[in-house]
């Protein structure tokens, strides 16, 4: 197939596009700056630009849609413009141009309302109760995508906390904050959490795309959470990442309830005042405090059965690869 990957300048997008290329698909990428991927056709632009979107989707058979505004804080209108309106524009262009299949890349945060997740599958996206502008707008976008199943064949995939070599979203921030002494454990750090190694997230997206083409229609119009299926405690996961990148593990502790209250206050101040931080993100938000202090791990049985997919790389092997990559980077 000829497959369009939106957001391929990001780590998961570029990795997914490379995998599609390597298994024989013709790949076009669409993002605001060059993807840097050999063998792919780059179309530069934003999902907020209907003309650019139309150029990108023209002549493709399938789309893997990763482009999104991802941040802990920011202007609500910006999130809506990219995540909701951009997705709507892309889906409309896809239907108009005869695209067949769409893998919409979502997030488990679309159904997370702040309470512990213990062995859940993939509850419906809930824009009204999801926490934070990113989660709320991604929930709206997922609902738009799944509603488009009919004119298109659509599946939503929610990779959970993707990490790996070259990761600037999680690994780099953990390392930076750990080295600066700004990475406390919330409570005892004992909450069990799922994560997803980069290669596993990419292979799951390919599996979802290939399953859309099967006659049984089993995955159409449905959402799937993807993880490694190896829950670890927050303390163990952070310590593993810190060890891999040569940063000190977190030792300071902050009560979870205190962090959640402080996160809500910081979030409000961040929206109203010209505040700045070294990594461009607020030091704490309510959503981040919830992620670090409450359990969130998922039942993967339906995901693995329906997508006919299993993770390739264990967490321990992923941490070994991360350490090896960081050592090679000097």
Neighbour order of strands in the largest sheet: 3-2-1-4-5-7-12
Would you identify the regions where 5 or more consecutive residues have pLDDT less than 50? none
Q: CATH fold name of the domain at 2-163 and 196-227 and 298-313, please? A: Rossmann fold
Helix content: 40-55%
Along the chain, the helix and strand elements come as EHEEHEHEEHEEHEEEHEEHEHHEHH
Q: Terminal Cα separation, in Å? A: 39 Å
According to CATH, the homologous superfamily of the domain at 2-163 and 196-227 and 298-313 is NAD(P)-binding Rossmann-like Domain
Count of strand segments: 15
Please give the CATH architecture of the domain at 2-163 and 196-227 and 298-313: 3-Layer(aba) Sandwich
- Report the biggest beta sheet as strand number plus sense, adding barrel if it closes: 7 strands, parallel
Q: Gyration radius, to the nearest Å?
A: 19 Å
If you had to describe this structure to a student in words, what would you say it looks like?
It is a single chain. The chain has 330 residues and is α/β, with parallel strands linked by helices. It has a domain at 2-163 and 196-227 and 298-313: Rossmann fold (3-Layer(aba) Sandwich). 42% of the residues lie in helices and 16% in strands. The chain is built from 11 helices and 15 strands. It has helices at residues 11-22, 50-57, 76-96, 133-147, 171-179, 198-212, 234-245, 256-272, 286-293, 301-307, 315-329, and strands at 2-6, 26-31, 41-44, 62-65, 101-105, 117-120, 153-159, 162-163, 185-186, 192-193, 196-197, 223-226, 232-233, 253-254, 296-298. The strands form 5 sheets. A 7-stranded parallel beta sheet has the order 3-2-1-4-5-7-12, sandwiched between helices. It has a two-stranded parallel ribbon with strand order 6-15. Helix 1 crosses helix 6 and helix 3 (76-96) packs parallel to helix 4 (133-147). The longest helix has 21 residues, at 76-96. The chain is globular and about 55 Å long. The protein starts with a strand and ends with a helix. The model has no long low-confidence stretch (mean pLDDT 90).
């Amino acid at each position: 197939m000829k497959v369009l990957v939106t957001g391929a300048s990001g780590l998961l997008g570029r990795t997914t596009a490379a995998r599609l290329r390597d298994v024989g698909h013709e790949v076009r990428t669409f993002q605001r700056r060059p993807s840097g991927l050999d063998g792919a056709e780059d179309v530069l632009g934003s999902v907020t630009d209907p003309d650019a979107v139309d150029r990108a989707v023209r002549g493709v058979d399938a789309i893997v849609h990763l482009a999104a505004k991802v941040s802990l804080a920011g202007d609500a209108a910006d999130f809506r413009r990219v995540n909701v309106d951009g997705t709507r524009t892309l889906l409309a262009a896809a239907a108009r141009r005869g695209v067949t299949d769409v893998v919409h890349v979502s997030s488990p945060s679309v159904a997370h309302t702040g309470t512990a997740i213990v062995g859940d599958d993939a509850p419906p996206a809930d824009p009204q109760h999801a926490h934070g502008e990113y989660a709320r707008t991604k929930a709206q976008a997922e609902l738009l995508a799944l509603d488009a199943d009919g004119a298109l064949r659509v599946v939503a995939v929610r990779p959970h906390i993707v990490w790996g070599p070259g990761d600037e979203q999680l690994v780099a921030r953990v390392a930076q904050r750990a080295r600066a002494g700004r990475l406390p454990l919330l409570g005892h750090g004992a909450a069990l959490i799922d994560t997803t190694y980069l290669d596993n997230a990419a292979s799951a997206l390919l599996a979802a795309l290939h399953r859309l083409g099967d006659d049984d229609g089993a995955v159409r119009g449905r959402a799937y959470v993807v993880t490694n299926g190896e829950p670890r405690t927050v303390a163990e996961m952070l310590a593993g990442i810190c060890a891999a990148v040569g940063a000190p593990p977190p030792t300071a502790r902050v009560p979870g309830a205190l962090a959640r209250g402080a996160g809500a206050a910081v979030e409000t101040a961040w929206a109203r005042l010209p505040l700045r931080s070294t990594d461009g993100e607020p030091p704490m938000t309510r959503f981040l405090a919830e992620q670090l202090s409450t359990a969130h791990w998922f039942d993967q049985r339906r995901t693995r059965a329906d997508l006919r997919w299993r993770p390739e790389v264990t967490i321990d092997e992923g941490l070994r690869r991360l350490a090896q990559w960081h050592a090679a980077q000097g």
